[in-house]
Design brief:
Layout lengths: L6 E8 L2 E9 L8 H15 L4 E7 L4 H7 L3 E7 L12 E8 L6
């Protein structure tokens, strides 16, 4: 917005999968569709590079899994998250999610 960076997505490509490492939006711009726009840009990039799958991990207890489902992702697996800690939850669950997209090649 006005040439100001308000959100970022970190990713890498491994074989035929674009793996999302992180997504961040400045607090003042959250809940305004910025994340959706970032994911639309990532999908477009994946299509251009003929990458048919986008994947990510999230912690179930954050509620982000439901947001990613609304963006078209499905839960592939759930397992105990050994790398995250919470003051609120004793055990955290890691969700591995994927979204299949149609590339321009298909």
């Amino acid at each position: 917005i006005d040439k100001k960076v308000i959100g970022t997505v970190q990713y890498y490509i491994d074989n035929l999968c674009m793996k999302i490492l992180g997504l961040s939006v400045l607090e003042d711009y959250r809940k305004q569709g910025v994340s959706r726009k970032l994911f639309e840009a990532i999908e477009e990039l994946a299509k251009e590079k003929y990458i048919p799958t986008i994947s990510l991990y999230t912690v179930k207890e954050t509620g982000n899994g439901d947001i990613f489902k609304k963006l078209g992702f499905t839960v592939v697996s759930e397992k105990s998250d050994e790398f995250s800690e919470s003051d609120k939850y004793k055990n955290l669950i890691s969700l591995y999610m994927e979204k299949e997209i149609k590339t321009y090649k298909q």
